[in-house]
Hints:
0% strand; single chain; mainly alpha; Four Helix Bundle (Hemerythrin (Met), subunit A)
Amino acid sequence: MIVNVLFYIFGAMLVASALGVITARNPVHCALYLVVAFLNSAVLWLLLGAEFLALTLVVVYVGAVMVLWLFVVMMMDVDVEKLRQGFTRYAPLGALVALVVVAQIGIVVWVRKLGLTGAPAAIARPDGYSNTAELGHLLYTEYLYPFEVAAVILLVAIVAAITLTMRKRPGQKLQNVAKQVAVRASDRIRIVKMDAEGGQ
C-alpha cells in the first residue's frame, strides 16, 4: 500500500518537473528541473528494486551529464531568443508526439484492465541477493563488447564537445603556452641603475 502511494507521489513530481523542463524560459532553470526529474526517476527505480540503476541515474546523469550540459550551454553562447522564435513552428509536431505517447500509455492501461499481463511478475530473490553483482557479471562477460563499444562512442562524444568549445570567436584572447615557457628574465625585466641622491 505504502509503495503505491509513494509511486503516485513521486510519479506526479516527475511529471511536474518534466513539464518544467520544457516550459522554463531560462536554460539553467531547465537543467535544475531536469535534475529534479532524474531524482524522482531514481526513487521510482528504488521502488522497483533496481538499486544500481537508481544510483547510476543520480551519479552519472545528475552528477556528470547535467554539469557538462550546463557547461555547454554557458560556453557555446546559445541564443535562447533565436531558439524560441521557432517554438511555434514545431509546436504541432510536439503536440502530435505527445498525443501518441498518451495514447500508448492509455493502451497499456486498457490492456491491463482486460486481465492480460504484458510482462511476467518479478521473481522473488533470496536474502543477500545483489542485482548489482549480477548486472556487473553480465556486463563484463556476456555483454562485454557492446559495453566497450558504448565506452568508445562516449569518448568520441567527449572529444567532439571539446572541439566545439575550441572554436575561435572575434575578440577572443588566447594564451600561447610555448611563448610563455620560452620567455627569459632579460625579456621581461629591465634593471635600471640610478645614482644615489644626497640627503637634504
